[in-house]
Design goal:
The chain is mostly beta strands and about 110 residues long. It is built from no helices and six strands. The chain has a six-stranded antiparallel barrel with strand order 1-4-3-2-5-6. It is globular. The relative contact order is 0.37.
Length: about 110
Protein backbone atom coordinates (compact mmCIF):
# COMPACT_ATOMS: atom_id res chain seq x y z
CA UNK A 1 0.00 0.00 0.00
CA UNK A 2 1.35 3.42 -0.97
CA UNK A 3 1.24 6.10 1.67
CA UNK A 4 1.29 9.83 1.14
CA UNK A 5 4.07 11.70 2.90
CA UNK A 6 3.83 15.26 4.16
CA UNK A 7 6.22 16.33 1.38
CA UNK A 8 3.84 15.12 -1.37
CA UNK A 9 1.97 17.87 -3.24
CA UNK A 10 -0.91 17.70 -5.68
CA UNK A 11 -0.28 19.65 -8.87
CA UNK A 12 -1.03 19.90 -12.59
CA UNK A 13 2.16 21.82 -13.49
CA UNK A 14 5.42 19.90 -13.26
CA UNK A 15 9.05 20.09 -14.35
CA UNK A 16 10.60 17.07 -16.04
CA UNK A 17 14.31 16.38 -16.42
CA UNK A 18 14.54 13.53 -18.91
CA UNK A 19 16.95 11.83 -21.25
CA UNK A 20 15.29 11.50 -24.67
CA UNK A 21 15.92 7.86 -25.54
CA UNK A 22 13.92 7.40 -28.71
CA UNK A 23 11.36 9.65 -30.37
CA UNK A 24 10.05 9.57 -33.93
CA UNK A 25 9.49 13.36 -33.91
CA UNK A 26 11.18 16.38 -32.41
CA UNK A 27 9.91 17.45 -28.98
CA UNK A 28 8.66 21.06 -28.84
CA UNK A 29 6.07 23.08 -26.94
CA UNK A 30 2.73 21.32 -27.42
CA UNK A 31 4.25 17.82 -27.59
CA UNK A 32 1.85 15.32 -26.00
CA UNK A 33 2.76 11.99 -24.40
CA UNK A 34 1.87 9.72 -21.49
CA UNK A 35 3.82 9.68 -18.22
CA UNK A 36 4.20 6.98 -15.62
CA UNK A 37 5.19 8.53 -12.28
CA UNK A 38 5.00 6.73 -8.95
CA UNK A 39 1.74 4.78 -9.32
CA UNK A 40 0.02 7.25 -11.66
CA UNK A 41 -0.36 7.22 -15.43
CA UNK A 42 -1.74 10.12 -17.43
CA UNK A 43 -1.46 12.41 -20.42
CA UNK A 44 1.05 15.24 -20.32
CA UNK A 45 1.78 18.19 -22.60
CA UNK A 46 5.05 20.07 -22.90
CA UNK A 47 4.57 23.83 -22.38
CA UNK A 48 8.18 24.78 -23.07
CA UNK A 49 11.67 23.36 -23.00
CA UNK A 50 13.52 25.26 -20.31
CA UNK A 51 16.99 24.06 -21.18
CA UNK A 52 19.07 21.34 -22.72
CA UNK A 53 21.53 20.19 -20.11
CA UNK A 54 24.17 19.43 -22.75
CA UNK A 55 23.91 22.83 -24.50
CA UNK A 56 25.73 26.11 -24.22
CA UNK A 57 23.86 27.99 -21.47
CA UNK A 58 23.21 31.20 -23.45
CA UNK A 59 21.02 29.56 -26.08
CA UNK A 60 17.28 29.03 -25.50
CA UNK A 61 16.26 25.63 -26.88
CA UNK A 62 13.07 25.26 -28.88
CA UNK A 63 13.20 21.53 -29.59
CA UNK A 64 14.78 18.28 -28.44
CA UNK A 65 15.73 15.12 -30.30
CA UNK A 66 16.97 11.63 -29.47
CA UNK A 67 20.02 11.79 -27.20
CA UNK A 68 19.22 15.18 -25.64
CA UNK A 69 18.94 15.59 -21.87
CA UNK A 70 16.31 18.27 -21.29
CA UNK A 71 14.46 20.12 -18.58
CA UNK A 72 10.93 21.13 -19.55
CA UNK A 73 7.79 22.59 -18.03
CA UNK A 74 4.73 20.40 -18.57
CA UNK A 75 1.02 20.39 -17.79
CA UNK A 76 -1.00 17.40 -16.67
CA UNK A 77 -4.69 16.94 -17.50
CA UNK A 78 -5.52 15.88 -13.96
CA UNK A 79 -3.84 16.81 -10.66
CA UNK A 80 -1.44 14.18 -9.37
CA UNK A 81 0.26 13.86 -6.02
CA UNK A 82 4.03 13.64 -6.48
CA UNK A 83 7.08 13.70 -4.30
CA UNK A 84 9.81 16.06 -5.46
CA UNK A 85 12.42 14.26 -7.58
CA UNK A 86 10.28 11.17 -8.24
CA UNK A 87 11.25 8.91 -11.14
CA UNK A 88 9.24 9.19 -14.34
CA UNK A 89 8.93 7.36 -17.66
CA UNK A 90 7.60 9.18 -20.74
CA UNK A 91 5.88 7.08 -23.38
CA UNK A 92 4.40 7.67 -26.82
CA UNK A 93 2.18 4.95 -28.23
CA UNK A 94 3.96 1.67 -27.40
CA UNK A 95 7.50 2.99 -27.00
CA UNK A 96 9.42 4.62 -24.19
CA UNK A 97 10.74 7.98 -25.40
CA UNK A 98 12.40 9.15 -22.21
CA UNK A 99 13.07 8.63 -18.54
CA UNK A 100 14.19 10.85 -15.72
CA UNK A 101 12.80 12.80 -12.78
CA UNK A 102 9.65 14.78 -12.14
CA UNK A 103 9.31 17.66 -9.71
CA UNK A 104 6.84 20.38 -8.85
CA UNK A 105 7.26 23.46 -11.05
CA UNK A 106 8.01 26.56 -8.96
Amino acid sequence: LATQSLDDKETTKVKLRVQVLDCPNIITAGFKAIIHAISKTGPIESNMIIKKITMIKNKKPVFAIKGDYIECECSLDIPVCITDESKVIVRLDDSTIGCGKISIYD
